[in-house]
Amino acid sequence: MAKLSGMSGDFKGREYPIEQGEITIGRKADNMILLDHPTISSHHCRILRSGDSCVLQDLESTNGTRVNSRDVKESALHHKDLIQMGSIEFLFDAPELASSGARYTDANAEVATGAMSAPQDFASISPFGAPPKERRGIWYFALIVIGAVALLALVFYFLMLAKAA
C-alpha cells in the first residue's frame, strides 16, 4: 500500500496511507491528512491516486511543494520520491508502483576517469561573485593604508608606555 512516511521534524516516523481517489493535505481540519505546522498552508496540496498512478498537485501553497528537491505545481509520484511540503519532508513509499516508472538505478551514468576541473566561467564560490579586476587595486590600497595606520598606532602606544615608565 502506498504511504507517506515522515522524514523530518515532529512528523518523523509518522505514516499516512495513500488510498484510491483524492487525498488533501494541509493545516485545516477538513483535510484528509492534517499537518499542523506553521510552514504548511491550510490547503497545501493533494494527491490523486487512480489505479497504478499517483499525481501530486500543489494548491497554491505559500511555502511551496517540492518533489526530489524541485519546485512543482503538479508531478507524477514514483516509489521512493522525496516530497517536501513547507519545511516538512516525506518519503513516498509505494513499492507496488516501482515497476511502473523508471528507477534511479536504471539511470545511465558516466564515470569520469580523468582529472576534474572547474568550468572555464567559474570564478568564485561566493554568491556575490569575485570582485571585478578594476576594483582589486582599491582593495589592496585600502589594506595597505589600514595596515600602516595600525602599525603607527602600535608604535604610538609603545612610545606612550615607554614615556610613562
Helix content: 10-25%
**What does the average pLDDT come to?**
85
Distance between the ends: 86 Å
Strand order in the sheet with the most strands: 2-1-11-10-7-8
Can you walk through the features of this model?
The protein has 165 residues and is of the alpha+beta class. Helices cover 19% and strands 28% of the residues. The chain is built from one helix and eleven strands, in the order βββββββββββα. β10 and β11 (88-93) form a beta hairpin.
Topology:
Blueprint: E1 3-6, E2 15-17, E3 21-26, E4 33-34, E5 45-50, E6 53-58, E7 65-67, E8 70-71, E9 74-77, E10 81-85, E11 88-93, H1 133-164
Parallel strand pairs: 3-4
Antiparallel strand pairs: 1-2, 1-11, 3-5, 5-6, 6-9, 7-8, 7-10, 10-11
Quick structural gist:
With 165 residues, the protein is α+β, with helices and mostly antiparallel strands.
Descriptors:
single chain, 165 residues, alpha+beta, 1 helix
